[in-house]
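Structure ticket #2291
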Amino acid sequence: MYSIPGHHHISMITKDINRNNHFYTKILGLRRVKISVNQDDPSMYHLFYGDLTGSPGTGLTFFEMPYVGNTYRGTNAITRIGLRVASVDSLHYWKERLETYNVKHGDITTYFNRPALHFEDDDGLQLVFVVDEEHVLSHWQPWDGSPVPATHQIQGFGPVEIKVRRLNKLTNLLTEVFHYKEVSRTNDEVVLQSIEGESFGEIVAILDEGMSERPGRGSIHHVAIRVRNEDELKYWLEQVRKRGFVTTGIVERHWFKSVYFRESNGVMIEMATDGPGFTADEDVETLGTKLVLPPYLEHRRSEIEANLTPIDDQHK
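Resolution: structure written out below.
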């Protein structure tokens, strides 16, 4: 039986790509591993950040929408992203670093029984550092060019929080179709893991019967779960279709192949293959230094570049 090895990437909306680039590379110390465009709307940037090579389970991706409004928080949405760090000492390091850069943050506390530090990016995206000293994403690779020491660098994703009106609809999908394990449950909160005991495939499902979230800057567009290869992707596609969900079918994204669908509450879920990865068209040394387009958009390069604001790596 196939299993889901964890989260693949998570995609968000940003209002200003230069502020976003500065926050994630200069403050959080992630590597920008790909500069590209939204393949469905090439007029907007799509930036990817992660570890040395943007390994599956480390990728934060952003679509730039300069005219987007504010997010009105609510339910039926992905509402928070956990970022794994190695130790409680790392939380103290990050608290001091966030204070240095005037980043909005809370105190060191806990998040579902793990030491944690909540904070927000410039768009109001809700993030939380979580400590998981027992498990390490085996293929995570530190980036020597990061302003953050390797011992404190972000080691991929931890829990992903999803608020929904119909809690059992979401949890039944995860357990019955994708074989996630419930590790804790109350009347209004369920913690599930794709690999039992390991936080890098953890989803925190929360019952919230309020108004639906209205997305905007700092909202989360979708979460992608990992699929090892195209054969497995075809298998999972069939399982989702058997459940009655409408899907996109397999979509070629050049660096991976994907299937998208909305679960019963309307939350967008993507299934994405591990390969071929971001080094398919760039050397490791030069990842994220120039605009890269998938082959079917290359003939429009001049037009696309003319519509994009240059990225300023010295932006403050």
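Closing remark: The chain has one domain: 7-306.
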